[in-house]
Amino acid sequence: MSDATADDGGRPCPVCETPMYHRHCKYVCPAHGVVYDCSDTFY
Question: What is the reported pTM?
Answer without folding.
Answer: 0.59
